[in-house]
Design a protein that fits this description.
GO terms for molecular function: DNA binding; endonuclease activity. With 210 residues, the protein is mainly α. It contains 12 helices and no strands.
């Protein structure tokens, strides 16, 4: 990855600016390495992220399509800091251009983004942003990843939808179960099946007439 980063750095139109940002990134990473507390690391990332805002905006607007360690690291930090909307903005560009995660990450970019955000949603609960999860699902739909990771996303979608749209929630839970039988949705499936038997949901046509 380091060799690839160096090679692409020298072919960029903004090579001088990119190298300056790489130097800043190295300094900021070194600062983070001195911090043992995960909570404090997240706080520091939130403090640092605004310093990269102008660079990210410029990179996404110019869309050079080359590997960009600064941009991808900012995406990771945004996820860590809870800025999932900002992270997905970068992820959409990165997936389109085929960018990869920097060392030492071993997962693909699509797998990483899906798993991190799905786990955050499952941790936060039913109040998590449904629009964001739907965007994530559409963004990563055609990208290969381990079945248990995609199952987490469907489990999260089921959780967020279960109060407002139990039919679709049940479909997501069932899909998650198919992908990963031990993903922990069996009880939710049974509960929703009982609920829908007692209180069946109107069809889309019936909803239109209501």
């Amino acid at each position: 990855m380091q060799a690839q980063t160096a090679a692409t750095a020298d072919t960029r139109a903004d090579v001088s600016h990119y190298k300056l940002m790489l130097a800043k990134l190295a300094t900021d990473r070194q600062r983070l390495k001195t911090i043992q507390s995960i909570t404090r690391k997240v706080e520091v990332k939130r403090e640092l992220l605004p310093d990269y805002e102008a660079y990210v905006t410029g990179a996404l607007e110019s869309a050079p399509g080359v590997q960009d360690e600064v941009l991808i690291t900012v995406m990771v930090w945004r996820i860590d800091a809870g800025d999932y909307v900002g992270a997905l903005t970068i992820a959409e560009y990165a997936l389109k251009k085929g960018l990869t995660l920097p060392d030492p990450y071993e997962r693909t970019l699509a797998t990483f983004v899906t798993e991190q955000i799905a786990e955050a949603a499952l941790s936060e609960g039913e109040s998590f942003d449904l629009t964001l999860l739907t965007q994530l699902a559409a963004l990563t739909e055609r990208h290969d990843m381990p079945d248990p990771v995609r199952a987490k996303l469907h489990k999260a979608l089921g959780m967020v939808l279960q109060a407002s749209d139990p039919d679709h929630a049940l479909a997501h839970y069932r899909h998650a179960l198919t992908l990963a039988p031990r993903c922990g949705v069996k009880k939710e499936i049974e509960r929703l099946e009982r609920q829908l038997t007692v209180f069946p949901q109107p069809s889309d046509a019936e909803k239109t007439r209501l």
